[in-house]
Amino acid sequence: MIKEIIVVEGKDDIAAVKSAIEAEVIATGGFGYDRKFIENLKVIAEKRGIIILTDPDHAGENIRKELSKHIKNCKHAFLPQGKAFKKGDIGVENATKEDIIEAIRKARPVISEKRKEFSKEDLIRQGLVGTTNSKEKREKLGDILGIGYCNGKQFLNRLNNFGITREEFLKALERIEDYE
Question: Is 178 helix (H, G, I), strand (E, B) or coil?
Fold first, then answer.
């Protein structure tokens, strides 16, 4: 059983997560949540902790950002778009049990103090920005590290804000070649 409460977007996401892992799960109802919902999440975060697992799309990312702004000390779990896509629909409910478990296992808290472990030059040097396959490489690396896919600027922020170490980063880069 997972100690933290997992926050997802909708009822289908709740069903998918509960079928994959023994955990308490609550849904935001998309953007339909109110101030009281946020206050309840703050209390839950203090007592048990929360893991935010939103859909790997623009709306899901906006919900994640909004919740993170109000709730400190939450963890973030990410599903790669390719593992949450079925019949033209993208969402947590489309992921396999194994992929949901993996995303939860890789959940990371945001580091509160500002870090500058990585710079734009690191991304350029490793081909994570500025090349024809940068997007694909960031997508694979984000999946391996459990920080999700995003553009280069956001990827740099996530490397620093989620406490990725230089060693983790380099090991993950080595794994990209063998990664499906």
Answer: helix
The percent of the chain in helix, strand and coil, each rounded to the nearest 5, is 50, 10, 40
Domain co-membership, 22 together with 76: yes
DSSP string, 15-81: HHHHHHS---EEE--TT---HHHHHHHHHHHHHT-EEE---SSHHHHHHHHHHHHH--S-EE----G
Pair of tokens at residue 144: 């391996």
State whether residue 85 is helix, strand or coil: strand
21 CB burial (10 A radius; 0-12, 13-18, 19+): middle
Q: Residue 19 is part of a domain; what is its CATH number?
A: 3.40.1360.10
Q: What is the per-residue pLDDT across 89-125, written as a single tens digit (0 to 9) for each? A: 889 999 999 999 999 999 999 876 777 899 999 999 9
- Give the number of domains in the chain: 2
User: What pTM was computed for the model?
Assistant: 0.85
